[in-house]
């Protein structure tokens, strides 16, 4: 509601305050983004909340020895494995005769 008592829409990413006289940015959970309508929406699997709190992104802090968990955290792959190209799982090569598996999951 404006100062003149006229109802107006809240800006994107905001909701109406309890007093119905102002708009505010909602408080969402740690892994939730704010939609344009002001609703709290869960982040997609394997992502983290962006600092703008309006989007979720793939974490950039994982090393080349880590995979990304569903909650967006980075976890070390076990010995003899390495992250897949998408970093969502750990993989290892299938070695042929006369080959051995290295600590990073390659033959």
Q: What structural class should be given to the helix and strand makeup? A: mainly beta
Summarize the main sheet: 2 strands, antiparallel
How many helices in DSSP terms? 0
Largest beta sheet: strand ordering: 1-2
Helix content: under 10%
Please report which band the strand proportion falls in: under 5%, 5-15%, 15-25%, 25-35%, 35-45% or over 45%: 15-25%
One letter per element, helices H and strands E, the order comes to EEEEEEEEEE
Instruction: Give the number of domains.
Output: 2
Average pLDDT taken over every residue: 91
The termini sit apart by 67 Å
Radius of gyration: 22 Å
User: Which overall shape is indicated by the principal axes computed on the Cα atoms?
Assistant: rod-shaped
Low-confidence stretches: none
Number of strands: 10
Descriptive notes:
The chain has two domains: 1-43, no CATH class; 58-107, no CATH class. The model has no long low-confidence stretch (mean pLDDT 91). By secondary structure, it is mainly beta. The chain has a two-stranded antiparallel sheet with strand order 1-2. The chain contains no helices and ten strands. The chain has strands at residues 15-16, 23-24, 32-34, 40-42, 48-49, 56-57, 66-68, 74-76, 82-83, 90-91. Helices cover 0% and strands 22% of the residues. β9 and β10 (90-91) form a beta hairpin.
């Amino acid at each position: 509601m404006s100062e003149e008592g006229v109802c107006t829409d809240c800006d994107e990413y905001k909701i109406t305050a309890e007093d119905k006289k102002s708009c505010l940015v909602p408080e969402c959970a740690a892994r939730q983004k704010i939609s344009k309508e002001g609703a709290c929406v869960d982040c997609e699997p394997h992502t983290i909340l962006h600092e703008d709190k309006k989007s979720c992104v793939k974490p950039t802090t994982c090393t080349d020895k880590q995979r990304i968990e569903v909650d967006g955290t980075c976890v070390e792959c076990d010995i003899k494995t390495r992250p897949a190209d998408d970093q969502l799982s750990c993989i290892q090569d299938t070695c042929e005769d006369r080959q051995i598996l290295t600590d990073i999951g390659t033959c």
